Amino acid sequence: MRAAAAVAALLGALALTGCQSSRPTSGTYTYTVGGPYQLGGIWRYPHEEFSYSETGLASVITRRSGPTADAETYDPTALMAQHRTLQLPAIVRVTNLENGRSVLVRLNDRGPEDPHRLIAVSPRVADLLGAGRAPFRVRVVLQEAESRQLSGGQIETGHLKVDTAPVAAVQSENLAPPPGEHASSRGHVVPAEAPVAPVMAAPAAVSVPLRLPEQVTQGRPDPGMLYIELGRFTFPQYAMEMAARLGSLGAQASFDPLATDKATYRVRIGPLRDQASAEATLDRALREGVSDARIVVDDD
Fold first, then answer.
1. Whole-number Å distance between alpha carbons of 86 and 130
2. What is the pLDDT of residues 73-98, one digit of tens each?
3. CATH fold of 24-221, please?
4. Which superfamily, per CATH, for 225-298?
5. What radius of gyration do the chain's Cα atoms show?
6. Which among 79, 157, 158, 166 has most CB atoms closer than 10 A?
7. How many C-beta neighbours within 10 Å does residue 65 have?
8. How deeply is 98 buried, as exposed, middle or buried, from its count of CB atoms within 10 A (0-12, 13-18, 19+)?
9. Spatial contact of 90 and 142, defined as CB atoms under 8 Å apart
10. Do 24-221 and 225-298 agree at the fold level?
11. Where are the domains of the chain?
């Protein structure tokens, strides 16, 4: 009994220490990548990436409380979003492919749990993108210079420039950063707006505020068609093997001339006639054990 009581006391002390080490402090955020975890029954593997560009479906965050995954204060009026694997925080440009509007967004939280969605955005992001509350087609492109600065690295680019969209209904405003910082054993703590000395003497370092300005760019709508991407491969034989294994779902292997890395062979299902068909097909692919399967938008 005494041994059990001692173990319980030790566990309680460790838990208390963990809580104290994760308490937010005003003015900083925690840069974090994190280890593998399960979300929605699927294993996810976070990793650093500074050349990310993907398409898919976005949803709107409806319920959220407490700090974000990088210990920022969640605010539905902030330009923020959830991503399952990218480093946090990171800056991405999110484009609504259905109307061409885009805005810079701060990734600072893990999610969405729904495997049909690429990201989940705050209600304010959805408003600026003219998306309403229904899922919408997006392209997400990581901003390398700004994201490297948030990671504590040095950059060689000039000031952040964002064009304002010629949309009368969308106004630009600068919001004060919310309080909140976090220290933990994972990642490292970085001041929210601390200057970073550039590697080269000429251009100044990019300034990335905790709260991004509401500046929207209006581009050309390009809604594209929905596909299920099952995987990308360097060698064609592996793509052909996967296509054969999921041939009953309509999987086909093809060469991607626009690939930016060595994985030039892809396996896809589609095009699919609507969102419901895409979601149902993705569910079937996941049941077949293809955990990396996802919905993409062919907007090229």
1. 25
2. 999 999 999 999 999 999 999 999 99
3. Barwin-like endoglucanases (2.40.40)
4. Sporulation related repeat (3.30.70.1070)
5. 21
6. 79
7. 5
8. middle
9. yes
10. no
11. 24-221, 225-298
